[in-house]
Amino acid sequence: MSRNLLLTISILISNRPDTVRKCLDSVKPLLDSVASELILVDTGCGEQVRHIIEEYTDKIVDFEWCNDFSKARNAGLRKAKGKWFLFLDDDEWFEDVAEFIRFFNSGEYKKYGLGAYTQRNYLTEGTNVYSELLVGRMVRLEPDIKFVYSIHENFNRVPGPVKKFDVFVHHYGYAFKTQAESDAHSRRNVSLLLIEHEKSPWNMKHTLQLAQEYNALNQYDKSAEMSLEGIGWYKKGKVEESFCLNSLFSNEIDCYIQLKKYQDAIEKGERYLREEKLDPLVRAVISGDLAVSYMEQGNEEKALEHAGLYWDIFKKKLANEEAYIEFVTIMTSECFEPRNRSLVLGNGVRAAARLGEAARAWELFQDLEWKGNAIFISNEMLRAIVSRMPDAAPSELEYYTKMCSQVVERKELEQYMVDTMKEVCSWHGNRADVIARYGGIKSAHWFFRLADIMAEAQRPEAERKLTSEEVENLAVEVWENIKQSMPYIKSCGMMEAAGRLGVGARQILERIPFYLWNDGILYFYLFGGGADIDWWNRELSDILPQESMFMLPWRACYSVHRIKLEAESDQGGIGEEALYSRVEEGLWEYVRNMTELCGRLYLPEILDQRLDVLPSERQAAYYMRDLLEEMAEKRYDKALKSLKEVRRLLPGMDNVMKRYLKWIDLKIKQEKQAADQVASEFQVLARQIKSKVRTFMDTGQFQAARSVVGQLQALLPEDEEVRRWQERLSRTEGE
């Protein structure tokens, strides 16, 4: 029976209770469908995991861990009875093994000596960000086949052609929770690799893997040194595992990029491309690095040239994937992954855009990855496209418009594009002309609706594409996003442009839902406005009837914003009294407009009994009214309470209210001073009268004293001297 086994699956078991079942369950369909066996090598898994693995097989090899992966693998290999041998770790699992099943059951396995599939290495736990590596993990067994090297082990030879499968495994072994964990893992690998390196420094596989671990530790100087050491052995004519040699050339250049030594990268990279017999993947890596380096040096022509070389190799690989399998190493496996493709082709697009080669930019742009959950798109590339559009010829502009339309399909990129276009508008001449250049981009964002209107207004009448109704609808969409759009409506002259296209401003504004208008006005005053408010006040006063409900929140906000600016600037030398007179005038204007608005919107019983259900800016109007009335009646204690509520409800008015608080304090102090003055004068008068009374009493003029003392007692009821006089005068009443 064992002689007929086609496949042995051997898995190293460590202590991964979180993933071991996923691993074992993923190979179960293969075990059920193909004549095969499962051998598990226990390297110290612990009691919990041991119980789990015993559910799946009784072929368990106990292995005492000795920091040597080959010895552990060979322990399972020695027990193997299958014609083929597949090895795994317990922190990885197959997505689907159907292709393996067909491979064995169809007899296709007889044509090959090695099977390669993709290892998807996740970079962070809980995310979908990963890198991919083609690994040869399934071999046709022959008597001398074994594993070699204590770390990054592999088969000692490949006994036949390589079959590339579309199968992939999920691998979370490199998804560390912290950077410290990642660094510790790399340092462990370095220590093991240095042992192998000392044994055979001419072994290019160890050299390459050491360089890779130094890269993981961000020790790019050491990584470059390893590459140069390996190239030195090559120059001496003595190397092992020579298939890794080429990758050392590319790693050296990549290290210079990481160290920002762009000139070194250019000089060495150009020399290697010219003088060395490099495999195509290494040529692609170096060409890609040179595209980046030249772009950093401001040489767009050479950057575009090398991006093109990279791109040509990429297209050839796409046409014949299997022809490139033999060139894959840990350094070149990620050459054409979306992250790297974005970097290289993105620099090519940047260069082409700056050179005015829009068609070339479009070619490179299309080979970027746009469909995955995670995309890697260079912001510098997007900026280059956007910045070029204002100056592009019509034939160029068509390409850039298509690029932008594709970009904004990704909602996570849309706002960046809009922000960048706004930035370009701010420094690139006439804003109306610039925004018009972004017309035609397919997006529902208000900015592009504005751009469509401006582009339409610039076309000759005979070439216009939009009806007046379509223009009106676009303008309404722009206005409905008033919080963001209002400054641009003014600066690019959208209302005038719409007018030239047959759409009146009033018919646009009256279509805006009132709640959007109200919220937008409030936002405008809180976070925008500034020098534009007077212009907008004149404009809206001309467009909308004064009795329009739309004008009520506008006038209310306009009034307080004017006094806010005046109070905050504190300029003009108008004096405190004049300033506060203007403040009160503005506050009353707010009160009148906002309470009128509330009267139109709410039932009387709401306004009488439930002001707390109103939006804060409307509640504030009623507290502001109370404040002003209490100030007029000099009820300063109540005025302070009302002011506190206004500050709570209108934090944007806090600076004005603080100034007004100072005014209340001043009024309170003035009242106290006046009262103190009256009291002082009264005390002087009282002393004078009491002196006269003493004279009357001393001279026996009791009748004269009696009339004065009666008045004094009413004024000074607590005065002890006046009380004694009153008692004495009572006793002398008959005298």
Gyration radius (Cα, Å) is 43 Å
Q: What CATH architecture label of the largest domain applies?
A: Alpha-Beta Complex
List the domain count as a whole number: 5
Strand content: 5-15%
CATH topology tier name of the largest domain: Spore Coat Polysaccharide Biosynthesis Protein SpsA, Chain A
| CATH class division of the largest domain | Alpha Beta
N- to C-terminal separation? 150 Å
| CATH homologous superfamily grouping of the largest domain | Spore Coat Polysaccharide Biosynthesis Protein SpsA, Chain A
Extended strand count: 10
> Number of helical segments?
32
Secondary-structure-derived class: alpha/beta
Mean pLDDT: 90
What are the segments in which pLDDT stays under 50 over at least 5 consecutive residues? none
Give your account of this protein's structure:
This protein has 735 residues and is of the alpha/beta class. The protein folds into 5 domains: 2-175, Spore Coat Polysaccharide Biosynthesis Protein SpsA, Chain A (Alpha-Beta Complex); 177-336, Tetratricopeptide repeat domain (Serine Threonine Protein Phosphatase 5, Tetratricopeptide repeat, Alpha Horseshoe); 408-511, no CATH class; 513-685, no CATH class; 700-731, no CATH class. The strands form 2 sheets. An 8-stranded mixed β-sheet has the order 3-2-1-4-7-6-10-5, sandwiched between helices. The protein has a two-stranded antiparallel sheet with strand order 8-9. Strand 6 and strand 7 form a beta hairpin. Helix 17 (431-437) packs across helix 18 (446-458) and helix 24 packs antiparallel against helix 25 (551-569). The mean pLDDT is 90.
